[in-house]
Amino acid sequence: MTETLDRTRPPKRKTALIDCDIHNAVPSDAALKPYLSSRWRAHLETTGSRTYSPYVAGYVYPKVSPAGGSRLDSWPPSGGLPGSDLDFMREQLLDAYDIDYGILNCLYRAAEQRNEEFGAALARAVNEWQVEHWLERDARLRASITVPFESPEPAAAEIEQAAGHPGFVQVLLFPRTKEPLGRRRYWPIYEAAVRHGLPVGIHFASTTAAPITSAGWPSYYIEDHTVMSMAFQSQVTSLIMEGVFERFPDLRITLIEGGFAWMPPLMWRLDGLYHRLHAEVPHLTRLPSEYVRAHMRMTTQPMEEPGHPPHLLQLIDQLGPEMLMFSTDYPHWDFDNPRRAFQVRLPPELEEQIMYGNAQRFYGL
Amino acid sequence: MTETLDRTRPPKRKTALIDCDIHNAVPSDAALKPYLSSRWRAHLETTGSRTYSPYVAGYVYPKVSPAGGSRLDSWPPSGGLPGSDLDFMREQLLDAYDIDYGILNCLYRAAEQRNEEFGAALARAVNEWQVEHWLERDARLRASITVPFESPEPAAAEIEQAAGHPGFVQVLLFPRTKEPLGRRRYWPIYEAAVRHGLPVGIHFASTTAAPITSAGWPSYYIEDHTVMSMAFQSQVTSLIMEGVFERFPDLRITLIEGGFAWMPPLMWRLDGLYHRLHAEVPHLTRLPSEYVRAHMRMTTQPMEEPGHPPHLLQLIDQLGPEMLMFSTDYPHWDFDNPRRAFQVRLPPELEEQIMYGNAQRFYGL
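The joint structure predicted for all components is written out below.
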């Protein structure tokens, strides 16, 4: 549930806690300059950013507040953007909720650059910045590797470089791509991730300018936010049906900030169709739902909340208790408070799995 | 479950039965000529059909058999297309399963014609053909009105014309449209439907050439079939968020052949977002899920089948027992046998609602 900062420290929790979705923000492009070569520094100064997603600003996060897509209280006193100040993040999140590990997903959009080499240079810079300003400064933090994922070969090269630092535990993509993510175009990314034992995270966001529904652009942000979960569903479908998990048996996928209530119905639909149409996809050897359970995990925020709260426990039972990993989405507007995120009290063993154990095993923490 | 014809007549059922999705087929464009003016007959002969959906043939129904998207046994002995012969439909479906009422949804794509007037003339012809060849020939049959829905004013005029025949009980749209269905562009259709007390059905199909996912075209038919349910989800979202049900309080929507398991998660997501973002949609006065339950119904086929069958009863409980109306999708390849469609035995009262009562009340039969 949306929650502003509670400054009273809680009593020591019994359950350990991993937050699988925290957003650290690059304060400005200028902050990346120390990590860019002279060529790309000059490019940034003279040509600047040229993207193919003119609409992004208006529809990924709403201007629900003067903080844009962030919590009103999340602007650091030091100045700068929400999520850009580690000390303030410690105070508001890591210390306040006694978080054992936090996974940083920096949403800097290197992948939307139309100049592919510039995008790759920006991704390199973001990752070096993450190491220096975040990973080397707090032992609780881990991070996702920013990659120019629409340029899969350079993205794979970036994984090679960044994976050398043990703080990187994931590769980060977005669910709205130029082609469905199962297609061969993206396989170099999966090959590199698997080689380094890293899962591939897919996080709510976009770099493309394609309409988010098959009927074109919806009118309202609330629709954009709703149908983003459908972008996730079509990517899950693509990854399975293209045989990506047959080609990369060790590939693991994290679905981040996409919701999770839609997954059981999707598995049922896919399994039902597979029984009838498997002749079209003879490269598959298992039921679609088996690929989901073996290869995918989902973060909890934004959590769908049934009108009848016990339905949430039915849903988790349908999904499988191993599938969920807790996340706050700090510092964004729809932050989930770890102490109050669930509508119903979870059985202790399930709570431990979701708040800690599943992520601990998945990320090897 | 997919089922071929069982020629042994069943013992008399205890439960009455309404089939809410039967496909009667226009045998060929020539069959429409008697219902076209000389101008449009000439147009058909000289210019012919010009559509903007070049991909439709390959992805709405698969060539799973020599029957295209239809059951192997559904070609009438008299010749012609599956679904084109009433006598054979009686034998295979209406009599075989002792169906009390059947709703015909003719999928003729008048709405994909690039010449809007020609599309309107074809829709008029299809509806006259339906009256003469179907509605006037079997008292069990009802039908949906074919409309050129991308031309909402002519579509509304067609509703005016066709609604004069009591056999028409619904207006038929498809879920992949040029704009989201909630937008004002489509309101003349809703206004006309409400004026005549007709629900608006949205049936699995497409007339547009826009990609079905926000990441473009998927590779496989099994993906097309899966993500079609997402086209439904985004249309439901649009209809609610645009305030269509505030503007037309008597509007009723039938979601046909789109699955139904995705609806509870969608309602939860929409309600949760509405609690936080209602300022963006101040024209709404109720929770999104309340609009769904008050204004929408869903047909059962293709039914999602949980791996653990009791989950189906949980799902129906989450959805609400009043929401579902049984359908076979005859003569298509994934036909549901009324005697075997459900994985689990339904409680008798629920079975009566789904197989008969909900549709009887909704369509006023």
